[in-house]
Amino acid sequence: MKHVCVIGNGAAGLVALRHLTAHPNKFKAVSYEQTGQVGGTWVYTDETGTDKNGLPIMSSMYKNLRTNLPKEVMGFPDFPFKKGKPSFITHQAVREYLEDYALYFNLYDHIKFHTVVKKVTPIEHDGEPVKWQVTTKNIAKNPSFESVDLFDAVMVCNGHYSVPLVPELEGMENFQGTVIHSHNYRDPVDFQDKTVLLLGRGASGQDICINMALHTKQIFLSHNKTPLKSRLPENVSQVTGIAKLTPDGAVLNDGSYINFDVLMLCTGYKYTFPFLSEECEVSTTNERVSPLYKHLIHTKYPSLCFVGLCKTICPFPQFHSQVLFYVKTLKEDITLPSQEEMKRDGDDNLQWRLESGMPERHAHVMGPLQWNYNHWLANTGNFTKIPNNVERLYDAVHEVRVTDLMHYKDVNYELIGDDSFKVLE
Q1: Residue 143: its pLDDT value, please?
Q2: Using N-to-C axis directions, what is the helix angle for 315-330 and 370-381, rounded to 10°?
Q3: How far apart are CA 323 and CA 327, in angstroms?
Q4: Could you tell me which residues come within 8 angstroms of residue 56 by beta carbon, excluding any fewer than 6 positions away?
Q5: Three-class DSSP category at 120
Q6: How far apart are CA 236 and CA 228, in angstroms?
Q7: 123: part of which helix (H) or strand (E)?
Q8: Run of H or E including 27
Q9: Over the range 338-357, which residues count as b (16 or more CB within 10 Å of their CB) and which as e?
């Protein structure tokens, strides 16, 4: 029997635990969660910064957030959301879904709450499979005492929406207004009658822009990409990126100058694994986690995996597929390629991305690439693939969002079988 450690109990950690515990004769699974509840980033709190234990606040939810994907495509394939309206649901509803998932599959008995993973170290002996020494601390019961346990495998599921990526902007030290990262955005009322420059037009930048527009005096949506096609609120203007900050505003890349009260950074997040020792040989340079095979498995230490690294995806179904594939490797139902072959596969994928015009920091960005990746996992792992209508509805909603950012969440959907969907009246 293999002893497996799961780190984190957001969606990725829960699905890892669910599929490990489905094989009680094969695995003994233990999951460590530093907070007191499951749900990860979906657990909303008014707090920002650090919690009462001095730990970073994990959640990036804001008070009235609704999902930017319909629940019909969000659910784990073996545990769908309840049918009916609305399709675009609140963060509270997603948290309740994850709690129901944990209850349904009896996961709570395997979770150690209020337990921080301090260090993960590979222990190698000649001719024997690597073991993993995991040092933890229960911050609720005995914060001064550290426990050490040995595992046969470690599944890292700590998420990547908790440590803000803050760009280096010329003149940042001179700007006298408020600077806030979207990770700490909670309530649009806090920006009543303010002029805001919102830097970044990714998914969170777009959603926050729409969310706060009713309260702000004006929003400058600043980016260097092609302009959004959708109609935007009357008080929102798209402008180019920042060349230099000044005490009361910024000079933009096109040479124009604007004044604003608040700089909102919607600039993404860092991959961070502070508990991994140097011996784990994991790099996060330029937001590329390496050396990994298929964005998932450590090429030197295949008993170490990372669930949920990919960006711009339909997350829960992909987590489900990644975990099913990885569990098959632990059961030895799948024979992985050699270390050299796996490393070459990862390097070749990066090279293909670079030659396609992607920056290295987009090494794990998927978008349309996610579906072939998911299919590869299912075909190679010999398990049921994500239904076709999940992909079709995901893509259809994306097309609506591009042209109608202000109202796309008003539409409701229903999946029909495995291949089609319909719009609900």
Answers
A1: 83
A2: 30
A3: 6
A4: 49, 50, 162, 163
A5: strand
A6: 12
A7: strand 115-123
A8: strand 27-32
A9: eeeebbeebeebbeebeeee
- The predicted model scores a pTM of 0.96
DSSP structure string for 129-198: --EEEEEEEETTT-TT-EEEEEESEEEE---SSSSB-----TTGGG--SEEEEGGG---GGGGTT-EEEE
Question: In the predicted model, is pLDDT for residue 142 greater than 90?
Answer: no
Instruction: State the chain's mean pLDDT as an integer.
Output: 96
* Separation CA 104–CA 36 (nearest Å): 19
The alpha carbon dihedral of 49, 92, 30, 343 has a sign of negative
Cis preceding-peptide flag for 86 (omega within 30 of 0): yes
Q: Give 324's Cβ-side CA count (13 Å radius).
A: 22
Residue 70, token pair as written in the block: 């319909």
Average pLDDT over residues 5-34: 98
CA distances from residue 81 to 152, 175, 237, 322 in whole angstroms, order as listed: 34, 45, 37, 20
Cβ neighbours of 319 (radius 10 Å): 23
Residue 179, φ and ψ in degrees, nearest 5? -115, 125
**Cβ atoms of 228 and 238 closer than 8 Å:** yes
* 275-292 residue pLDDT tens: 999 999 999 999 999 999
Half-sphere exposure of 187 (CA within 13 A, CB side): 7
pLDDT the model gives residue 240: 97
Non-local (6+) Cβ contacts of 82 within 8 A are none
Amino acid in position 35: T
Which of 23-32, 120-129, 248-257 is the least confident region? 120-129
Q: How many C-beta atoms surround the C-beta of residue 247 within 10 A?
A: 10
Q: How large a percentage of the chain has pLDDT more than 90?
A: 95
Q: Does pLDDT of 54 surpass 90?
A: no
